[in-house]
Specification:
Immunoglobulin-like; globular; 320 residues; 9-stranded mixed beta sheet; 5-stranded mixed beta sheet; mainly beta; disordered N terminus; 2 domains
Length: 320
């Protein structure tokens, strides 16, 4: 028995036998006199004028101080578990304030990531506002996401995202919790290196980026234990497309794979059979449905994605 965040959970030693092949885991009104009304209306106009002036000043001040807003959204690339619980402690970004970030493309980003207290004339480390804790990654599938971090930071090119991972990581399968550990001597953080132009500026001075946690590649088997080797992909909604559809019946326990020669993504349909794969580059894909329980596998070819649109493959009915 282990206590995590005040809750007691049952922990079972991991058994590797057929674990990854099991697809069944599945306002009282206010009255006033007329003169009071005109007085209040006059005051409201004055307050509105003052607040508008303040907002303009605040915006101008933010611009003058060289700030930008960065929001990071977390989403999921699914795996065959009921829950994937990841302990995220902090998120930091390395900002390149130089006029030309291309001059720093040969920088040793691993070395920079290892010392986020180092002061440099061009690079600035910024700590983003997050809610540290355990995130159930599987709640973020089929187009769902959550705001992981958002802060006003120094203006410049984002070159590194550093995510610190805690020790309370686990997966749940058939109501049994299995601990997931970082590999021996492994660093307790993951570095996501960028070119500096990946973020989407959806409003002036406001940027955002989606981080896709790849469960299939992040949770790996090592003997009788599970290891966490976090793998993240990143994308923006405005520059990528999506593929969506519905597949049934649900007792076929379908797993959806979307692929072409250069890209592969996965999806697990929800209880209604609906699935959505986001972050797809422009191109032509095949959609492969891996079925179980006596149902036949199905493949749909020539599925074309045009960013930022969504391509629907309609309803797919599995046959046995």
């Amino acid at each position: 028995m282990v206590s995590v965040s005040g809750k007691t959970i049952r922990v079972k030693k991991f058994n590797t036998h057929n674990f990854f092949n099991d697809h069944n885991a599945t306002l009282k009104p206010i009255h006033m006199k007329i003169k009071h009304f005109f007085f209040a209306a006059s005051m409201a106009i004055m307050v509105s004028f003052v607040m508008t002036a303040c907002n303009k000043n605040t915006s101008a001040e933010a611009s003058a101080t060289g700030k930008q807003q960065l929001s990071l959204y977390l989403t999921d690339g699914p795996g065959l578990f009921d829950q994937v619980l990841i302990d995220i402690r902090s998120v930091k970004v390395l900002v390149d304030t130089s006029a030309n970030t291309r001059r720093h493309d040969s920088t040793n980003w691993d070395r920079m990531g290892a010392n986020d207290q180092h002061k440099d004339s061009s690079f600035v480390w910024e700590t983003l506002n997050i809610s540290p804790g355990i995130y159930d990654i599987l709640k973020l599938r089929n187009g769902a996401d959550t705001l992981l971090a958002s802060s006003n930071i120094t203006k410049g090119a984002i070159r590194v995202i550093k995510i610190e991972i805690g020790t309370h990581n686990s997966v749940v399968k058939d109501s049994v919790t299995y601990p997931v550990s970082l590999p021996t001597n492994a660093l307790n953080y993951i570095l996501i290196t960028l070119q500096g132009n990946e973020c989407e500026e959806y409003l002036p001075g406001k940027n955002r980026l989606w981080l896709d946690f790849d469960i299939t590649r992040s949770i790996v088997q090592d003997g009788n234990r599970l290891l966490l080797r976090p793998v993240f992909h990143f994308y923006t909604v405005s520059t990528t497309g999506s593929i969506a559809g519905r597949v049934g019946p649900k007792d076929g326990f379908p797993v959806v794979t979307v692929y072409n020669a250069t890209d592969t993504a996965y999806a697990l349909p929800d209880k209604e059979g609906i699935f959505r794969v986001r972050g797809m580059k422009n191109g032509t894909y095949s959609v492969y449905i891996n079925a179980s329980n006596g149902y036949k596998d199905t493949t749909i070819t020539n599925v074309v994605v045009h960013a930022p649109g969504e391509t629907s493959v309609g309803t797919i009915k599995l046959r046995n």
